[in-house]
């Protein structure tokens, strides 16, 4: 089992959180941390559960030469609070929804906390998508650096 597990959460799990999941997977692979750190993504709202990644988000994921065609939106589960060390929302609404479950255990916060504290904007158009992707990459890089440092301190 992985040393650290990260769950990315957004309202629908069809745009921002899958982009974060696959971006972070790509960074983990580049740093030879696959299997040491694992990640997944999910939604806090049931409206898109079972749906595929939005086509525009999928384009960003394919740029990283990653295949998300089998990814389906899933709902945040109570067991996620036991199974993950970090549950990270894209914006403050996501964090509120995660905390509303009332279950303690993992670190709950914003992905942007690992890159200056910026929220990842909701994607409504291509400009939003570009800005969200930029902030997701920055957050994932900061999170990866943080995890490497913390794992080294723990050993």
Q: Describe the global form.
A: globular
Number of extended strands? 4
CATH superfamily: Response regulator
The CATH topology is given as: Rossmann fold
Q: What is the CA-atom radius of gyration, in angstroms? A: 14 Å
**What is the count of structural domains?**
1
Give the topology string: H per helix, E per strand: EHEHHEHEH
Q: Runs with pLDDT <50, length 5+?
A: none
Written description of the protein model:
- The protein is an alpha/beta fold and 155 residues long.
- The chain has a single domain, classed as 3-Layer(aba) Sandwich (Rossmann fold), CATH 3.40.50.2300.
- It is 43% helix and 14% strand.
- It contains five helices and four strands, in the order E-H-E-H-H-E-H-E-H.
- The chain has helices at residues 16-30, 55-63, 80-83, 92-100, 126-154, and strands spanning 4-10, 37-43, 86-89, 107-110.
- It has a four-stranded parallel sheet.
- Helix 1 links the parallel strand 1 (4-10) and strand 2 (37-43).
- Helix 1 packs parallel to helix 2 and helix 1 packs across helix 5 (126-154).
- The protein is globular, with a radius of gyration of 14 Å.
- It starts with a strand and ends with a helix.
Q: Summary?
A:
This protein has one domain: Response regulator (Rossmann fold, 3-Layer(aba) Sandwich), CATH 3.40.50.2300. Helix content is 43%, strand content 14%.
